Request: fold
Amino acid sequence: MPPSRLNEIFDQRLAQTPDAPLLFLPDETFSVAALGSLVDQIEAELREDGVLPGDRVLIIAENCPEHIALIIACSRVSAWSCGVNARMAPAEIAAFAAKADPRVTYYTTGVSEAARDHAGRQPARPSVLPGLQRSAIRSDAMAEPEPAASEIAAIIFTSGTTGSSKGVMVTHCGLLHFARVSAASRRLTAADRVYAYLPMTHIFGLGTVLMSALLVGAGLVMRSRFDPQDVLDALAQGGVSNLLAPPTFYGRVLAHLDTLGIDRPEAPALRYLYTGAGPLDLDLKRVIEARFGHPLHHGYGMSEYAGSLCVTAIDAPRDDTAAGHPAEGAELRIIATDDRDAEPGERGEIWMRGPGLMRGYFRDPDATAQVMRPGGWYASGDIGYLGPDDALFVVGRLKELIIRSGFNVYPAEVEGVLNAFPAIHNSAVVGRREADGNEEVVAFVETTPGSVLDRAALDAHLRDRLSPYKRPSQIIPIDALPMTGSGKVLKRQLLERIPAPAA
Reply:
C-alpha cells in the first residue's frame, strides 16, 4: 500500500534499508535505524505525556536529527507538528504559541543557542533525548476533532513578511503528493545527497528537502544554519548532488567565492540546481549557471499549497525566469482586476487548486474566507502572467505593489535592475505612503564586499533601465537585509527603518 501519512514514508524506509546512511552532519552520520531509535523514544514520550490525536506540538527548532524525529513521531500519534525557527524573537515565539495552542512545546537545545535561550525563559524540563527540552503538558489545550485530527500533518506559520503570520494547516495527502512530485522533478534517487540547510520549519525545507529525500532514501547533508564556506566544503567533499535554495543563498555563496578569488566551486557530484521562495533575477540566474556549470531550475510554491505549484522541467532548462508549468494535479488561473481570466501575457492574481491545497488557516475562519474562492480556488495574493508557452512568470505580491503617480511599480522589477549594478549584492524595494496618498519608491541595498557605492554611476544605470516613476526616490545602504530563515526579505521591518521626511 502506498503511504498515506508522513511517518509511513519513514517507516517503509526503516523496514527496507535500516542501515543506509541518511543524515550527514559535520561530525557524525545517522543511519535510518539510528534516526528510527530517536523516533521510537520521542513517540513513547509523547504517548506517556498524554499527547492526543489533533493536539499541536510546538517545536522551537533549528535543523537537527531530533527535530526530524519529532516530526515523524508526531505523525505516528496523529499530533500536528508546528515548527518555528528558533532564531525568532521572544515576542514572535509567544505569538506563535498563542496561535498554535500546543499541548507541549519542544526546544532543540542541543544544536541551537537560540532554542536554549527560549527554553530558559520557560519552566522547561528534560526530554528523553539529551538534545531536547520540553515544556510542561498543558491540560487546557484543546485537541482538534476528527476528521481534521487525522488529515492534518503540520501547521506551518506563514513568514509574515508584509503582515501578521497565519497557521497553514498542511495535510498528509498534500505533503506526500508534493514529496512524489518534487522527487520526480529532480529524478531523485537513493544515490543522491541533498544539501539541507533550509529550515525544516518552512515548507521548502520540510517538503522539498526532507520528505522527498525520505521517500526515495536520498541522503541529507544537514546543517542548522547557513555558512557559505560550509556550502563550498560540502560541494567539494560531501558528495552533494542537489542544491536547493532561495536566490539570496546563491548570491551570498557567489559573494563568498569572490572574496576567496575563486571563479567556480569544486563540485564533482553536483547535478541539479534549484531556486524558489523568492523572485529570480535573470542576471543572477545567468551568473549562477555560468559559475556552477549547471542549469538553474526554478519553481513557484507556498505553504498554502504544500510546496511547488509549478516547476521547470529537468530536460528543458529555460533561458528566462519562468517558474515552469503546473506540477502533476495542480491547476492555476490568472485573474485580472475585473475578475475575468486574464489573456496570455496579461498580469493578474495567481489562483490555484489541487491536492496540495491547505485545509485553511488554523482557527481563523475569517482569514481563510478572505483567500478562498468558489470552486475550491485559493487566491494567492501573488501577481503573475502566462508566457507564450503557458509557463508561469511571477511578478510580485499584491500587497507589495507600489502605485506611484497612478502607475504600477513592481518591486521585483526594480530590484532586478538594482542587483545588476556591479557594486550591489542584494536589494529590497518598498513603497511608503505619502501625505497626498501617493507612494514613494524606497530601495534598501547591500553592497558587494569591498565595494563603494558610486551614486552618480548608479543613477545613470537606473535612468537607462527604468522609467522615471519606477526609480527609487531614496536609496538606503544597509549592512544586511532582514530575512526569514527561508531567505525571504522582511519588508515590514524595512518600512520601519525609512527615515521620517524632513519637516
